[in-house]
Structure formats: C-alpha cells, structure tokens
Amino acid sequence: MADETKKSKISSSRRLGLKIRLLTVAAQMLQEETEQRMREKEAVLAEKLPPLNMAGLSLQDLQDLCKDMYHKIDVVDEERYDIGLKVSKNGKEIDDMNLKITEIQSKFKKPTLRRVKISAEAMLSVLLGSKHKESIDFKANLKTVKKEEEKKEEVTDWRKNVEAMSGMEGRKKLFNASGN
What we know:
Order of helices and strands: HHHHH
Number of helices: 5
Structural class: mainly alpha
Helix content: 55-70%
Number of strands: 0
Distance between the termini: 67 Å
C-alpha cells in the first residue's frame, strides 16, 4: 500500500485548463486593479492640483504664478526630505534593535532543565531561610468545599398567586426572592 502513489481525481489536461483559466482571470483582475489605481491617482491629482489657466495672463501675473508654484515646490520638497530622514532614522533604529536581539539571544543560551524532587518544607526552607522554623501542613490548610444541593422549586398552581404578585408589591417580592 505504501508503494502505491495516489492518483489525482482530475486529469492533467483538465488541471492545465483550470490553471490557464485561473491565470487569465488573475491577469484580468490585476489589469482592472491597476486601471482603478490610475483613476484614483488622477482623481487625487485633479483635486489637489487644479488645471492652470495661463491664457490671457500678463507677464507680471505669470511671474507671480511661477513664484507661487516655486514656493509650493519648496514646501513639498522640504516635507519629502523630512519624511525621508524619519524613515531612514526608523530603519536604523530597527536594525540596531535587531542586532541587540541577536546579541542577547546568542549570549544567553537556555540551559537544559532537570527535574528536581524536593519537598514543600525543603523548598520553603530554601526560599525563606531562617524564617522557616515550623512545619506547615498544606493539606490541612486547604479549604473544604461543600457541594450545595440544587434547590428544587415547588410546583404550585399559578392562579393562587396572581393577586398576591400583582402590582409593585408582587414585583418587590419577586425581586427579593431572586436575590436570595
């Protein structure tokens, strides 16, 4: 039985056809995803950067527009530079921490633990030292737990208590009975 190889339930030509279909569907999904990203990028750019209207502007207006755009480019370039510095700083910190982790792991090798048979009194004497003078019986100090028998409710005729349980007094009685 171990020598026999398991035969697949699908023929190789059918498997190949399924793989081809899967790959074509995946390629279509990838293409749609890239197109969606491009549409989102264009929408964001159109929102952030309105189209320039240079028609009918005088030389002074064009120079002011260029200065304004140059100022915006400087601000964006400064932000990009700051973000790049933060990223590189965080990368260095991550590398340093990884080095520290590998150093710590290589220094402290976990020793093989052996089972030690020791009584409770000997353990207390080791832990407490001279403070431990008298022997302690742990089993005697354990609390005994009594199993409470489930209270069985008496089955009574509900019609007898309808008037007694009506109104606020009846609700108060039910509340007090459930709290006990």
